[in-house]
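1st attempt posting a full record on here, be nice pls
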Amino acid sequence: MANKTTTGAGTRAGAARARTATSKRARTGAVKLAKPQRQHLVAKLIEQNQIKNQAQLVELLAQEDVVATQATVSRDLDEMGAIKVRVQGGESAYALPELPSEQFAPEGHLRRVLGDWVVEVAHSGNLIVLRTPPGSAHVVGSALDRVGLPEILGTVAGDDTLMLVVTEGASTSAAAAKLSELAGL
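the predicted structure (as tokens):
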């Protein structure tokens, strides 16, 4: 856990929150994972269990000493492309497509990812270049690949730069404008 240095009342309030969180963790053993680690655990739980609803998933996470709300679990399932499938006995349970390319990401997820990570959009010929903070280009590339925009033929992600190839016949400037709008730029 990183420590922040502040002055005045902020120090006392921050220290009190840290003591409360630490003492709560000591009592329950539960931790709050970062999204990538939590989603990895969610995928593992879905593979190992027939999870019929979000409340059951929240409970399974708690058994793993991970704190998550139903709202958080709902967003995770949506972002991961989880679907409900029929299982033996006619009931339904969550499942994840086996291949990342089969996982569907809704446009709302793409808007969140672009808004959070894209800082610049430029285009030339049939290429669009997206700039992100260092180490973030792959997150944006994965979201674009999963949403499957018809005008984007493919993506190549580096560390902080993403190159998109626009399909022949599609307007590169219109696609760049669409991405800029989704990113809130």
